[in-house]
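# step 3/5: fold
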Amino acid sequence: MKNLKLKYSILIAAFAALTFSACTNLDETVYSDITAEKTHFTSEDVTNLIAPAFTALRNVYWGWDGLADLYEESSDCIVVPNRLGIGWGDYYVTMHQHTWSAANESHPYTLWQQAYNGITYVNRAIYQLDQISGIQNKDAYVYELRGLRAFYYYLLFDNFRNIPIVTKYDLPKGYLPKQCTPDSTYRFIVSELTTAMPYLSDANTKATYGRFTKWAAKMTLAKLYLNHEVYFGSPMWAEAQAQVEDVINSGKFKLADNYRDPFLFDNSNSVEQIFSIPFDPIYASGSYYPFKTLYAASQATYNLSGQPWGGSGAIPQFIDTYDPDDSRLKDSWLGGPQYTSSGTPLILDTDPDKGKQLNYINYMSDVNGCYYNEGYRLVKYEIKSGTNAATGNDVPLFRYTDALMIKAECLLRQGKADEAAAIVTQVRQRDFKSNPAKATVTGAKLAGGSSYKYGAYSNGKITSYEGGADIKYGGFLDELGWEFVGEHHRKQDLIRFNVYTTKSWFCKTKKDDNMKIFAIPQDFMNANSNLKQNPGY
């Protein structure tokens, strides 16, 4: 890079409003008062210019209280309770009980901040590419960045609806954007994805791994269409199905032989990965999840380089929905008596159970006072022996099974339950190898109620039983839970199946529908007088 004297500051979200443009105007005046105005770039700089826009996804997903936590900890599967003698609680309890407000709650704050950081990196890269002449296939780079930016917006739109849209990096000092309506934001995202599509790579190779390809764009569109009824009241099942059928029929991806393959420590060669966030334990560290979920003594099970922190655990009502022969139970969760890496019983050496074997139990007392061993622990991502609190597993943002299950859901909702059941059976066949007959599921089962026993839960008992038999397509919702738990799915799925606010679980009760979207954190409201708070907050 020649004569590069950049004075970039990473724009945290409290000041991100200063880098925004109007809702969808991509042709406005270019301003010259920017931090890199005298920088000279060459075609050799392209990779370095583009990389930050992609690496920002790491903080979006696995930053503290990031995307994975936001979608899962507000759901009926995972909770971070206040653990007696250990801590946690606070805004984790708020996330579980759906009692958040506009007061800078950590999970929505992190998403807003980190997603807009990623968008700023995209806009900066596009601006810098415009300064360079002689780049081969420059349009391909620019449209890939626009597709990635649309993905960031999809995340923000799904969780906040009423957001500003960034389209320019070079804006005058003090510029404040206007908030866009949900329908204009939705149209913008769809337009960006469809406009970029002809320029995006349709390959699935090492060179395109982690890049925003045609298939990543189609999966994002499929998600937007799949949830259109939630957003605007009218379904787009056929449109969602068409997008995933293109992915399926491409022949570039397939169902892994084993459920755990996409989550292995070295999972970059998984046949399921459609769009992934690459991580490396040294150069691009990632998930802290095994440390957040395991109790300290589990260090001896995995030879971890430090002691885990003992936070999140499985809500027992969800664990109770699993068929005991479903291998996804053990592939996803750690439960029962625990052993050291050498196979000997893991004996505790601290109170309150000094001298006893560590035993993770499928039981929780109360969100404000759980013991260290209450709740099974999520171990879906392979925990490599000797790992520290920054693992190297790549994150499969979209994987092939997701494409299959979107198609199945669209078929089910269009009255083709048996066709949907054939796809779900195909997925289940790798999970019931000990009892293959159980892999087969019927259309009637998928269309029927959920096996989840909803209702307020305390000290191992449901205190106000609500059940799940009344949930339309509840059988399919169960399948989504077993397949995608811990994969940034559950909040969105519960909303689409009208469960998120209408049912109770553990210490969360029924809520008003405004809780389907988050409040805009107050810091960002204070930074931009043009922002209006979401309804109900």
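# step 4/5: annotate
The longest helix spans residues 106-130.
# step 5/5: archive (pending)
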